[in-house]
Amino acid sequence: MNRERGTARGRARAAAAVVLALGLCTAACSAGGPPSIVGKQTLRIGVKADQPGLGLRLADGRFTGFDVDVATYVAGKLGVPPGRITFVPVTSATREKVLENGSVDMVVATYSITPERETLVTFAGPYYVAHQDTMVRADETAIRTVHDLKGKRLCAAAGSNSWKRVTQELGIAAKLVPAPSYSACVAMLLAGKVDAVSTDDLILAGFAARAGRAVRILNAPFSDEPYGIGLRKGDLSGCEAINRAISQMYLDGTAARLLRKWFGHTKLQLDPYVPQFEGCG
Amino acid sequence: MLASAGPGAPLHGPRGRRPTAGLGRLGLRATPGRVRAFAAVVVLAMAGFYIVASIAVGNARDGLRVIGHDAGPQVLATADLYFALSDMDSQVADILLAGSGSRPGTGRALIRYSQDRATADRAALQAAELSAGDPTDQASVRSVLDGLGQYERLASQAMVLGRQANRPPGPPPAAVIAVYRQATDLMKLQLLPQAYNLTLAGGATVREAYEAKRSAVSSGRVWVALTGLAVLVALAGLQFFLAARFRRQVNFALALATAGLIVLGVSAVRLLSGEAAQLQLAKADGFDSILTMSRARAISNSMRADEIRFLLDPGRADIYSLDYLDVAQTILYVPSGNLGEYYTGLGTAERAYQANSRSVSFLGFFGEEAHAHPGPALTVVLTRFEQVQADDQRMRQLAGAGHSQQAIAVLTGQTAGSSGYDFDRYDQAVVSLISLHRQAFDQAVRTGDQDLGRSVLGSWASLLPVAALGVALLVIAGVRPRLAEYR
């Protein structure tokens, strides 16, 4: 009798183990793919540290800018309040790496969605479509459109593709002057070492706000730069949840308010309409 | 021989032993009590099997309903919304480019414009139905409908102005361009993105439902097997107990119950495996590909519109050229810095693919499709896409050399070698590819539905309770004569 009860208990234990295994499997197996940022209690978000108006680290270590505000809004919609967000500075060159090695959960850093990058990163959004434009010195009158850059000195910032749009895509024969970064480009523009800086209008607007009346943006946009939110490759639920958050950001007026807050003082044409998403799959 | 075995009066059964006080009160020491307890365990296990199987079958039915009948088809309908909207703008550009003289294409473009309008209205209604319950999506649908009214006013204003100016084919006067720009900007910046995002949001809903249901069906299958096994063990136990206590070899009713349970359990597990497979087929081979290719078709139409706008609005020729390249690369991506490199890269990538369909050196929508579903239908699409690009290249060369009338002729012509004609043929090839996936989708949904509805007693939903009750009744029928021996 005792032996029988023993086996019965053993059987019950085996059944419980099977039930447990099944339970674990339905929880873990259904997720499919890498862990999602949905449901995370805290978030590490990669932003730029050196782009005024978009992502800039202040002297006290805080980050400010349009990208930072967008990231904070999206995190809020994912259930993570500002107090549980850690902003991590990233550069154009490190964005894929930090996502892949998991040191950040998402990247909101003037990150244009391109087919090549889509093979490495899952992009939510775009949350804004910037346009390439050109900045010149305020007293420059000979340059009115990008075509007037023919024969002029155009700054080519390291790691950026913007100058290629001018010389390769549009085939305009500008003289390229290399520079380490866009802040260096702006300094060279003010010093008269280059005639023009051409890149995303939002980036130019941030620098123009600092340089004051010394510079002018042509306001002749000629390309679409869809800024996406980078996630670890394959995080479909995270991507879909962020797309929902971006739609809400435009519907509830937050996007328009943030654009006004950061770029309202410029003459840029701001589009307060939800951009066409790339799709997560 | 006969003895009463009621509760509180435990007596020896045929081979009974002296009861201990506690168990005796429950009647479990005595044989009839044990028989009842055993039978109760079998019936309870059977109830468990029934519940688990009904839930799993219910999940399969829900999964098929969402993908095959409700959200799935509605999402696909919203893709038509984007197509119809972008086609409206494309036709308006075509009409404006034609000038005030009548060209055979103009009448056709006007008819297509009004057909597109009707399609857009229908698709918007579908989208509205789909978005019921989601305030964000509902607001988007309303916004698209409001914007559509505004777009139509601007478009007809531009077309009326364009007719009034007496002019040859080519860019219309600045006043017409100004109105058209308002219309096309409204379309491109507000209406198309919202329509596209609605489709994506619907696709996300379907994906979530699919993942949840498919994993529920898969784990349901394991649960059905386990509970079925539990019933089987309990039944076998009861059989052995009766055989030992009553010295009878086979209890006919219990044997029948066992056989019935095995047949039921095996067919239920097979059914659920089949349903999980059909769900996966409907999703991966059907829905996903239809959605991807419908998006490719809609985006292709935007590409065509950018091509027409390039000639229509020289002031924005740069913008429309870069847009054209961006859109073309969304459809089929090869690394290229400008359109010239794109034409070359496209040719190389396609020749490599034609030679060996496993060498997919391109990305974008067609890259996805080439990896997931290579086949002759896709090859036709790719060949015709390349032809469209060849026409585009010729058109841009002519325009660049100042032969604008010839460029317009290439762009709008309706004979082979002109992009109007070749684009339509390309579009037809994409539609054929979509309909292939549509067949796979319909087939998977139909098979899934049929299997759920096909059992000895009609649908599985009606078979399960009857079968479970049948097995339970057989168990009771099997033990009743033995219990009667104690009355």
Give your account of this protein's structure.
The complex is a heterodimer of chains A (281) and B (487). Chain A has 281 residues and is of the alpha/beta class. Chain A has two domains: 43-129 and 226-263, Periplasmic binding protein-like II (D-Maltodextrin-Binding Protein, domain 2); 131-217, D-Maltodextrin-Binding Protein, domain 2. Chain A contains nine helices and twelve strands. In chain A, strand 8 (153-157), helix 5 (162-169) and strand 9 form a beta-alpha-beta unit. Chain A is globular. Chain A starts with a helix and ends in an 18-residue tail after the last helix. Chain B is mostly helical and 487 residues long. Chain B is 82% helix and 0% strand. Chain B has 14 helices and no strands. In chain B, helix 2 (31-69) runs parallel beside helix 3. In chain B, 49% of the residues are buried. The A-B interface holds A 15, 18, 22, 25-26, 29-30, 32, 115-116, 118-119, 146-147, 164-165, 168-171, 221-224, 236-237, 240, 243-244, 247-248, 251, 271, 273-277, 279-281 and B 136, 139-140, 189-190, 192-194, 196-197, 200-201, 203-204, 207-208, 211-212, 215-216, 219, 222-223, 226, 230, 288, 292, 295, 318-319, 321-323, 325-326, 329-330, 333, 335, 337-339, 363-364.
- Estimate what percentage of residues of chain B fall within beta strands: under 5%
Q: What is the helical fraction of chain B, as a range of percent?
A: over 70%
Please provide the count of β strands of chain B: 0
Spans of chain A of at least 5 consecutive residues whose pLDDT stays below 50 are 1-32
Subunit organisation of the chains: heterodimer
Query: What spatial form of chain A do the alpha-carbon principal axes imply?
Result: globular
Task: Please summarize the sheet with the most strands of chain B.
Answer: none
Average pLDDT taken over every residue of chain A: 85
Q: Determine Rg of chain B (CA atoms, Å).
A: 34 Å
Rg of chain A is: 24 Å
Which sequence of SSEs, written as H and E, runs from N to C of chain B?
Answer: HHHHHHHHHHHHHH
Helix content of chain A: 25-40%
Please give the count of helices of chain B: 14
Number of beta-strand segments of chain A: 12
Q: Supply the CATH architecture of the largest domain in chain A.
A: 3-Layer(aba) Sandwich
- Secondary structure tally, helices of chain A: 9
At the fourth level of CATH, the homologous superfamily of the largest domain in chain A is: Periplasmic binding protein-like II
